[in-house]
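quick one before i forget lol
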Amino acid sequence: MLYRQQIMSLQDAEGDHFEILLRMNGPNGEVAPGYFLPVAERNGLMPGIDRWVIGQVIGMLARHGGHGAPPRIFVKIEAQSIIDPTLVPWLKEQLASHDIPAGSLILEAPESRVLTNLKPVQSLVGQLKPLGVKFALEQFGSGLNSFQLLKHVDADYLKIDRNFMAELPQHEDNRARIAEICGKARELGKLTVAEWVEDAASTSILFTCGVDFVQGNFLREPEVVRVQKHQAA
């Protein structure tokens, strides 16, 4: 199952922005990814799952057509896909056959996974750029030298580590760190996204800090995406 959650612009960016969230139907209802993805990873299934999700998103973008500014959609990929040498040729073929506008698809991976797969990520991002596919670093700021990582990985979006969002109005140090991240990101031409934003006060603080986009159930609940049965994988 796929859900999409809207990512709200605080800086009047054009077009809609979404993140795709993966779930699975189980015998007792929906199963969260934290339960089934580790099993899939142990059994080498993640490249196929990631391709299925990306294929669905490409179909969504193709069906949008030229009606206004194209949406921009974030899709998580796992380590097995990052190191898969056949991913980019497949993606190139899919994008060409569906005529997707540049910048519409954004692949994302957490900072910790990027650090442990640095050379494959560098190669992947370098190959994505000519295809018009963007790259986002998730959980950004969780490491001690997060900005050093940007010297090696040319990410377009920085998704700020969710730990900074917990009770944000009460944590001056977290506010200062977020403002620092946003200031440096702007200097480098990167866009910032704050996830897990759960109250109006935090949203206001993040705007003051210079965050470009915010995401959270308080702002917009995820909604089910209708899956296309014959989408290429």
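fyi The two ends are 15 Å apart (CA to CA).
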